[in-house]
Amino acid sequence: MENKVIEVNGNLFDADESFSLVHCVSKDFAMGKGIALEFKRRFGRVEELKRQNARIGGMAYLPVSRRYIVYLVTKEKYFHKPTYESLRSSLINLKDFCLENRISNLAMPRIGCGLDQLHWETVFPLIQEVFSPTPIRIAIYTF
User: pLDDT by residue (tens digit) across 78-135?
Assistant: First the structure.
C-alpha cells in the first residue's frame, strides 16, 4: 500500500492528536534552538528521553495523551550536523516503531532541513522511500 505524504502550511503543534509528532535531535538532547527548543518547552521530560539511551540513527519517544512525541537521534552533539545515512536509519527505526505500535499518522517539520542544513530535495524522497510500503500517513508542516 502506498503511503500518503503531504505538505501542510501551518504550525506543527496544531496537528490533531491522532498524529504523533516527530523531529530530529542530538544524542545529548540539548534542544536549545529551533523547533527542538519548542519541543523541550512543551513536552520536557528530557531525563526520561536520555534514559532510553538512543543511539545515533535511533530514536526516543514520550507517550503524551493519545499519541507519541518522537525524537529522531541523528547526530552526537547539538552543534554537529546529521548525515543522510543517520537520518535514514532513524526513519527506518521510526517506521518499525509505528508498525509495532499501530501508529498510522505522523506529523513532522521538514526534518533535518532547518538548523541541521540537510536539503529538502533529498530528505523528502528519503521519507517517501522508507514509508512507501506502509499505510502510514505523514503530514509535513511548513510555515
Answer: 999 999 999 999 999 999 999 999 999 999 999 999 889 999 999 999 999 999 989 9
In order of 53, 104, 142, the CA distances from 57 in angstroms are 12, 21, 24
Reference 90, options 30, 35, 23; nearest CA is 23
Burial class of 28 by CB neighbour count within 10 A (0 to 12, 13 to 18, 19+): middle
CATH topology of domain 4-142: Leucine Aminopeptidase, subunit E; domain 1 (3.40.220)
Global pTM? Answer: 0.95
Q: What is the C-alpha separation between 28 and 49, in angstroms, rounded?
A: 10
Catalytic residues: 75, 116
Could you say which DSSP state residue 55 is in? Answer: P
Q: Give 124: exposed, middle or buried? Use CB within 10 Å, 0-12, 13-18, 19+.
A: middle
Structural domain boundaries in the chain: 4-142
Q: How many CB atoms lie within 10 A of CB 27?
A: 19
Report whether 64 contacts 43 (CB < 8 A).
yes
